[in-house]
């Protein structure tokens, strides 16, 4: 399956954004950042949010619905201990899925009850995005093609938001076994005979293994800068003939061969 986040022409991807209001109260004041993130993957042609709007706890969401053209879906809590909101969201998602009008779905929740929904979306050949807090259970994260943690929205070197990850130094990065394993596996899979690998291909391979892979986790806004900061990889970006930035290539320093400084296919 060709993932929308790996496609540079994401503007044509049509997305259905479905928000679990009861489970995402932290996101209400971050709605602008939320939809800025979603815009990286495509156009949110459907935006719905589910909850019992007669309850005062949803007041923060009520303040931003009209501004962002989000359609509230009323779901009364008919039975104590049962989450009717989840059921309503899942039913709507399946109805929208069968219309064949979308390229992907974005489920905004930290609830593992949506794990099977994400799997079903992927089985239909569409891209499943998830957005939730870092407390989100692993099964839901793994069921998505791409999962973004709320705490990372607006993150990176310039972020001063509360809870944004601090930029890691080279020693901390090299000591992160998961990060190093994902990068090395991606480079090995995508590399040519001289050891160079397209950085976008490395990213895509890492996300296939870990849907929550995101350079902002380590405090970097660009994967290129993260890889360079580790100190164990070479990074090469060649300008195109028209002067615009070209493709970024990476390789492990100890894998380089004499006389093979340029990536294969570079101008």
Secondary structure elements and pairings:
Elements: E1 14-20, H1 31-38, E2 43-51, H2 59-65, E3 71-74, H3 84-97, E4 104-108, H4 115-123, E5 127-132, H5 138-143, E6 146-149, H6 170-174, H7 177-190, E7 197-198, H8 199-209, H9 223-230, E8 233-239, E9 245-252
Parallel strand pairs: 1-2, 1-4, 2-3, 4-5, 5-6
Antiparallel strand pairs: 7-9, 8-9
Helix pairs in contact: 7-8
Description:
There is one protein chain. The chain has a six-stranded parallel beta sheet. Strands 7-9-8 form a three-stranded antiparallel beta sheet. It is 31% helix and 19% strand. α5 (138-143) links the parallel β5 (127-132) and β6. It starts with 13 loop residues before the first strand and ends in a 15-residue tail after the last strand. Mean pLDDT is 87; it is low at 1-9 and 155-161. It is built from nine helices and nine strands. With 267 residues, it is α/β, with parallel strands linked by helices.
Kindly summarize this structure in a few lines.
The protein has 267 residues and is α/β, with parallel strands linked by helices.
Indicate the multimeric state.
single chain
Structural class: alpha/beta
Mean pLDDT: 87
> What's the N-to-C terminus distance?
30 Å
Name the shape in a single word.
elongated
Beta strand %: 15-25%
Strand order in the sheet with the most strands: 3-2-1-4-5-6
Profile the largest sheet: 6 strands, parallel
Rg (CA only): 20 Å
What's the helix-strand series? EHEHEHEHEHEHHEHHEE
Give the fraction of residues assigned to helices.
25-40%
Low-confidence stretches: 1-9, 155-161
Strands, count:
9
User: Please, how many helices?
Assistant: 9
